[in-house]
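Hi V.,

Quick status before I head out on leave. The structure for the redesign project is tokenized and pasted below; the design run finished overnight.
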């Protein structure tokens, strides 16, 4: 369930009226067939009776689910994890890494040219 770590506890607030589901907000959805899913929602109930579900993990494509296939919806509040999040690199560190990669690619390219 990236980027939320495995084993984390996700808490939510019960949503009584689904008309008030806000776009681009995370929800815990209890479905009839898929079980419990955690997605960022696009509310299309008024248009076509569906929610468009977007994963926080970019490896998964969005998909739609009809309201008839949903038991309950809970608005995401927070998660609790025993994992310490990895430090994100600073902009300067990213720039430096890109420079190093460019230099390495240049060296490899020059070596390949000489070996021809």
């Amino acid at each position: 369930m990236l980027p939320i770590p495995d084993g984390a506890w996700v808490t939510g607030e019960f949503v009584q009226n689904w008309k008030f589901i806000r776009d681009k907000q995370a929800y815990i959805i209890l479905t009839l067939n898929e079980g419990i899913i955690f997605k960022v929602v696009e509310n299309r109930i008024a248009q076509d009776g569906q929610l468009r579900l977007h994963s926080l993990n970019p490896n998964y494509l969005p998909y739609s689910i009809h309201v008839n296939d949903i038991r309950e919806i809970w608005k995401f509040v927070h998660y609790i994890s025993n994992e310490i999040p990895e430090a994100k690199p600073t902009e300067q560190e990213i720039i430096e890494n890109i420079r190093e990669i460019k230099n390495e690619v240049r060296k490899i390219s020059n070596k390949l040219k000489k070996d021809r």
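Above is the designed sequence. The longest helix spans residues 91-115.

G. will cover questions while I'm gone.

Best,
W.
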